[in-house]
Amino acid sequence: MAEFSGKTGLIVGVANKRSIAWAIAQATAARGARLVLTYQGRFEDHVRELSEGLAERPLVLPCDVTSDAEIDAAFARADQELGGVDFVVHGAAFALRDELTSPFTQTTREGFRVALDVSAYSLIALARAAAPLMEKRGGGSILTLTYLGSERVFPNYNVMGVAKAALEATVRYLAADLGPRNIRVNAISAGPIKTLAAAGIGGFSTILNVYRDRAPLRRNVEAAEIGDAAAFLLSDAGKAITGEVLMVDAGYHIAGM
Ligand code: NAD
Ligand code: 0WE
Fold it and tell me: How far is the CA of 124 from the centre of ligand 2 (A)?
């Protein structure tokens, strides 16, 4: 019996084939999960095209995480069509371009609001919508994606680092709130991967080189490896793990120098 057979999941954060959320979709679908793939407006065509490559056709729905109405509508459809949800993947993050290029002291009130709304608050909104659907299936597992910039300073990561710190704290508070209903909440802190969100970052290849040189495994991580770790946390293999941030970064974070 495949690990995810009879399980359904809703995934937020697929933009294209390089998206970490897409690697998680593939990892869980390959293990038997039935999926709902959501997209942010402009990525509809990409996500529909990708969805055709999965063995079992996913339900493809819009879900801009800044809209409570879109979140509620997506979970209502998932409930109608699939009779509940066993897991949710949150892979949405965004900061205004200027916030990732200006000195940190220039962070604007609006830039701070946007980064924290899209990248951190949205996990609370998704968890609130998912909880009743998970509860009727006896529990569930929620997973988000974070980055070491929440605890260490990386040049230009700026307000995204603050948003990831808030996201990781949100994981712990949600885990405490939802644990009594057998709903687990965890994060994977991934090493740098060249995705669309990374393509816009000046000097990203330097970051990849620094990680490769200093990580204990002397290499970078691949999206598929995040997919495998995600499948572990989302499946029953992780059923005693909640409120955790799992580092999947080839060991980079342990290095002193
Ligand atoms: P990506 O660009 O493929 O994914 C980011 C996603 O966020 C996109 O699908 C985009 O549509 C979505 N998004 C942004 N605003 C949204 C909104 N308002 N509503 C709904 N969706 C919205 O890049 P990725 O690297 O796969 O990023 C996925 C997650 O992984 C992010 O949380 C990112 O911070 C995290 N992460 C990335 C890396 C990396 O190096 N690529 C490392 C660690 C963590
Ligand atoms: O979380 C991220 C990046 C998220 C991101 C990327 C963009 C680029 C385009 C959020 N908002 C935007 N806004 C845009 O307009 N990562 C973990 C990848 C990343 O970004 C960095 C990194 C790493 C790693 C920025 C500086 C330093 C390291």
Answer: 21
